[in-house]
Amino acid sequence: MRNLKYLSIFLALIAIVACSDLEEVPVGRLSPDGLVQSPADVQTLINGAIGNMATERYWGRKLSLPIMLRSDMVSIGDLGTPGRRQEVNNFSMGADNGMVTALWPKAYEVIAGTNEAIASAATLDADPAQLDPVTAQAHFFRAYTYYHLVRLFGDIPYLDAPVLDVDAALTISKTSAAEVYSNIIADLEEAKLNLPATQPSRALPSKGTAAAYLASVYLTLGDYQKAYDEAKYVIDNEGEFGLVLEADYQDLFNSGVKSNEPLLTLDFNGFSDGDTGRDYAPALTGIRANERGNIGGGWSVAVPTINVYNAWDGRDYRKAVSLDTTGIFNGVEEPFTKFPDFDSRNIQSAYIAKYTRFVGATGTGNGRASSLDYNLMRYAEVLLIAAEALNEINPGTIEAEGYVNRVRERARNGNGSDFPANVTSGMSQADFRDMVLEERRWELAFEFKRWYDIKRRQLGMEAFGLGGLEPQPSFDPARDYLFPLPFDELDRNPNLAPNNPGY
């Protein structure tokens, strides 16, 4: 069984080079006989786990696309796209959906890499000042991965050590979502304690990153005091953590700008080699056959509904940054109302621009060879978490208004307009809550946050009802706040049964 112990490591190491800011260590140094001999070797294992995140079966398509489509901001543009994607969007997915069956094992590969790093670090007789900050990264990324899984699936297997026995692995049962959250919090607390205040790359977490994710987790759980406390800790130490709001909102989505707003990024480095290190978001969100940008156009898969365009105030600079309203076809610039449909493969709607406008791509490939850094958590979100949480524990404060106003002030920088105006003082708690959720909708548009907001606030009937931005008659609140567990996992391990309600 010895080789089984190292299987997850080698799977993770395959993808090390996908993270552009992380140092590659030759795989040959990490043979089973002398696997980990120093904190640098632990870092290599962690780099491999991060690299697994930048693959098609995780962030590339199987995680980022479903949580984007599941929101009320994005629908299917290409009616010829595979049915598994349309099922996610239409709330008709089953346990055999190919997005789910591919995502699940890849997520556990990421977790396996972090578990191996933590276990290997425990065997080293190294200076804690050198080892603990590295091991803390593994705790952080394990928490990060489980945080996605528990929000998507609910009760899931929780593994916190390398799996040494195949037979034992096939009898693992589910852990309650409450216990998974407790473990996530413990990992993030460990990370917050031992991570440095700053990192050479935002692709690696800092002390502030761990606190920001603690704030997000507590917000999800409805523990608003702790959510506020963690967000306030980040805000009070923004100078130490090197955090600012980027002056120009557009620069957050420009591969040529290294911003100090993100607390965590997933970086692509301008090459496309198989599914490792290949960026799919430009292709999935781009306008089919669009000649602008010299990336070969997109696939028109994930497209905002026309209701999103109509509901978004045209004075908001963030709308101009986030949406493309024209394309170039046969050398002629056309408005979206005249986009050629290419046999129902383009819809007449504004398209997502955040991942196609400044990709830094060298050639075509539909933008898959991008150099984009994806903002997994940025400072503006921390400010909005603080505002939302403070409103729940102490409504009507100038402090909470101020956090939203900082975000709005940056938005006004883009076009010199007076929109969006500062928050109107004296709002009721309910009105302020609705306002912050709307602010998150526009500030974080298409950044893979909206579905989780809908889920944690139980907004599905409103979001997908007849008056919502994306009416979906199949939405069922008793079923659709959770994804189904993959059927093949349940076939291999009946202890995971029953599936989530409705599947």
Automatic annotation (TrEMBL):
It comes from Maribacter algarum (ex Zhang et al. 2020). Gene3D superfamilies: 1.25.40.390. It holds the Pfam family SusD-like_3. This is RagB/SusD family nutrient uptake outer membrane protein. InterPro entries: SusD-like_N, SusD_RagB_dom, TPR-like_helical_dom_sf. GO terms for cellular component: cell outer membrane. Keywords: Cell outer membrane, Membrane, Signal. Belongs to the SusD family. Residues 37-219 form the SusD-like N-terminal domain. Residues 348-503 form the RagB/SusD domain. SUPFAM superfamilies: TPR-like. It comes from the Bacteria. It is found in: Cell outer membrane.
